[in-house]
Amino acid sequence: MIFLNFFVHNAWSATDSNWQELPLCQDQQEICSTIYTAQPSPTRNPNILRFTDPMLLEPEWLELHLLRLQDPSTEEATTLALLHLLSRSTVSSTQWEPTIRRLSKDSNPHIRAGVAELSKYASPEFQLEILQYLSTDLEPSVRASAIRSIARIDAASYQSILEGALLDPDTSVRLDAIQAIGWNNILVDITRLTPLLQDTDSTIRMHTLRSISRVHPHLTHEIIEQYNLTQDTDALVQKEALRLEKTR
Amino acid sequence: MITLWTIFACTGTKSTSMDFAPVYGVANMDDDNENGTVDWEEGLFDTENDTSTLVIPVEYFAQLGKKESLVIRQESDGFKVYVDGTLKMNSAEDFFTLGTKNTEEDVVLEIEMQQMNTSGTLTIEKQHNGSVVDTVEVELISVPMLVNHHLQPAEHVYAMSGSGFVNNQDFIHGFQDALGNRFSSFNVSGYEWDVWIQDELEFSSLYSPESRLNIVIDSIRNRGLDTLPENEFTIPDYAVHTWGRGMATSQDSFGNLEASPPIAGHPYGRIYYGEWSYASGVDTITPDLTSALTAQHIQSPFTLDVSFLCVGHVDEYQSFIPDPSSPKGFKYVLADVTAGYEFLESLPSSMSLPKYTNDHHYASVGAILADNALRRLNEDIQIDYLDVTWEKMQQELGLTEEDVIRIPMLFEEAYQCGGYTATLFPSTLNMVVVTHDDGASADIIFPDPYLRSNVQDQSSDVFINHVNSLLPTANTAHWVDDWSEYHMMLGEVHCGSNTLRTPMYEPWNE
After folding, report:
1. Alpha-carbon gap, residue A45 to A81, rounded angstroms
2. How far apart are CA B432 and CA B171, in angstroms?
3. Strands, E assignment, B143-280
4. Residue B11 pLDDT > 60, yes or no?
5. What is the helix, strand, coil percentage profile of chain A, to 5?
6. B418 contacts in A (CB within 8 Å)?
7. Which of A23, B69, B431, B501 could form a cystine bridge with B152, CB 3.0-4.6 A?
8. Mean pLDDT, all residues of chain B
């Protein structure tokens, strides 16, 4: 199988029909056309589209999917559906990482966020490269996607990124970071966590308390008292503080 | 207010008091003669079956004096009154003479009602030489619309069927095997491959002692199935109606609109639906519809927080099933992640899960259990949403621990959904409750969880066996494959079907 990883993204044109020139497609033009033009279906969430045809998952079609990912005429929804398809693929991620690396620089933030999410299923080296890069993206949704992916892999290796994300100007990024720390019991120093107990967003305050209870359980009661969290202005923070007090 | 009225006959014989019970009816919103005109907009015809009857017995006329007559007067708009098929009144202040002493038989009035959940009055006057000497009122009540609940018998189940772009024949065969002729399907290719029939329409009922009309609430969701309600249910005794317009959110889909079984104080149950909160607002069912449902009064809607879900519908994680052995006659079934982990921990960690390997990235039970971030995510969901839902259900419906069955379930972040979740296993809670005519038992269709190493051998599935053991004995479980076209598309068997149910009449004003 010829792998077209030398192909330049911006110079490609769908009208060139380059897929037809693939050796893979020489004797099966019709099938290749079907694969290349397959359309994803809306899921129950209308904003998320996915491919349902199990044939598309067969490893022999990877080349076509990667070509389509590099096609500027491929619509956003289709691109995202292809990324989801890759996440389910049985092929080694090293076969699609070069193409996805290029997509990490796509002008569309939704696609960059999709790359961050797909990175969970890549090699550790690729994960590190891409997630470090995308965790500093200009777009908050991309940074958040990177943080959420970090939360689900070897998060402890990304402690410095997570600590930096606690200071992110965007609420969702800070929230994802504090959750990632708590979910993975990452031993972030308490002095880096307590400032978020005074975050303007009550959801962050609540999850910070919860993460502290997971990472520094022996300090929980002291923190609740020190920051008077049972009297927080928000009912959810109060409720969490009371819940944790009951579990002492 | 109805007043008692005594008539003294000239002969001095004992009088007969006139007293009329309220007349209940349904809004005549359908098109029984299928001529393209709503029945209210035209006169009566042979196949019209949505009028109500008011009988003035001949005894009331027999007791009138020589110069006396009974006259009926309409006090409210929105009603029509016919005698022998002839329209006699159709607006406030209309009147006509019912009869005199010489009337020799009962006078039978047919009453037609325009709008649901309204009331009006007819006044019957005893007149002497044209002057009113006494009156009695008759209350007219157009019944409210009721969303159906799971203790109502299921008449028919519908789904979308395809064998091309969407290929769900295993799903369809599963329903056919379980339900036989109680199930039918529509061709999904004619509806842009949109399989989510639960979301596009909600069957509800107008039901009086004499009439029944099925209201098909047509969502503003308007995806591929947009025209299905009009195409398939513009038939006699059905009326398709949409409340609201404009941009729909996921919460406008009717997997997010359900009704509980009857509870104390609410003989038709209560409506519940989900609210999805985000930084700057709340998404929920369009206010035009929620206002209309609230205005019906009887089912007193309340909301649940579904903000943890990618799709965000109340049917993803809870339901109700018949249980005649329970104090309330039903069980509330709710997803529980603590039960989910207890269940998994009871299994060999080496047990392989072929279905989950590529599609969910867990090759074995042990792989799920080893994912600590997943466990913490699920703990958060239990604390912040599932326990809160249970508290709300206790508060709003008066449920207690003896009313609930906790179903093992886990959640995961749905791919490309910004961190919001869907169930990891095909959601057992997203079930189809096909209630039997007795209202006390059901065939229940569940999605096959595939929590087994041999995907071909459903009998080896420990989760299926476990859930079967939790079910009340009155119910029969059927486990149907919905993996590719439904579960991987963020829905399950309930989302992909819709059930027409028989209304159950109870006196409205008691």
Report:
1. 13
2. 13
3. 146-147, 154-161, 183-187, 201-207, 212-218, 238-241, 257-259, 271-278
4. no
5. 65, 0, 30
6. 141, 144-145
7. B501
8. 94
Q: What average pLDDT score do residues B6-16 get?
A: 43
Residue B279: the pLDDT is: 81
| Residue tagged 């970090």 (tokens) | A150
Average pLDDT over residues A12-22: 64
Residue B399 CA to residue B393 CA, distance in Å, equals 6
A234, B113, B147, B461 from B82: Cα distances, Å: 61, 12, 31, 63
B223/A46 Cβ within 8 A: yes
Stretch (H or E) spanning B492 = none
Q: Are B121 and B478 in contact (CB under 8 A)?
A: no
Q: Return the residue in B166, B194, B415, B493 with the most chain A beta carbons within 10 A, the one to mutate for interface testing.
A: B415
> In terms of CA atoms, which chain B residue is nearest residue A116?
B416
Name the residue among B372, B418, B489 with its Cβ closest to that of A43: B489
Considering only CB atoms, which chain B residues are within 8 Å of A88? 358-359
pLDDT tens sequence across B292-343: 999 999 999 999 999 999 999 999 999 999 999 999 999 999 999 999 999 9
Task: Pull the structure tokens for residue B267.
Answer: 């003989």
Judging contacts by C-beta atoms under 8 Å, the chain B residues touching residue A176 are 419
- Listed as own residue / partner, the contacts of B83-89 with beta carbons closer than 8 Å and 24 or more positions apart are B83/B107, B83/B108, B83/B109, B83/B110, B84/B108, B85/B43, B85/B44, B85/B110, B87/B43, B87/B44
Per-residue confidence (pLDDT) for residue B510, from 0 to 100: 46
| In contact, B284 and B276? CB cutoff 8 Å | yes
Cα(B15)–Cα(B5) distance, rounded to whole angstroms? 10
Contacts of B311 in chain A (CB under 8 A): 43-45
What is the C-alpha to C-alpha distance for residues A103 and A99, in angstroms, rounded to an integer? 7
Amino acid making up residue B53:
T
Contact B373 A155 (CB under 8 A): yes
Q: Which residues of B289-302 are buried (b: 16+ CB within 10 A; e: fewer)?
A: bbebbeebebbbbe
Banded model confidence at residue B9, pLDDT cuts 50, 70, 90: very low
Which of B167, B220, B416 is best to mutate for the A interface (most A CBs within 10 A)? B416
The confidence score (pLDDT) of residue B508 equals 52
pTM: 0.93
Q: How far is CA A4 from CA A76, A85, A159, B160, B221, in A?
A: 21, 19, 36, 41, 42
Task: State the sign of the Cα–Cα–Cα–Cα dihedral B323, B324, B327, B328.
Answer: positive
- B124 contacts B71 by C-beta, under 8 angstroms: yes
Tokens of B119: 């009331």
| Nearest-by-CA chain B residue for A201 | B279
Interface A:B, Cβ pairs < 8 A: 89
In contact, A165 and A177? CB cutoff 8 Å: yes
The Cα–Cα gap between A137 and A133 comes to 7
Average pLDDT over residues B359-372: 98
Interface pTM (ipTM) of the complex? 0.93
Nearest CA among A67, A166, A165, A49 for reference residue A114: A49
In contact, B218 and B229? CB cutoff 8 Å: yes
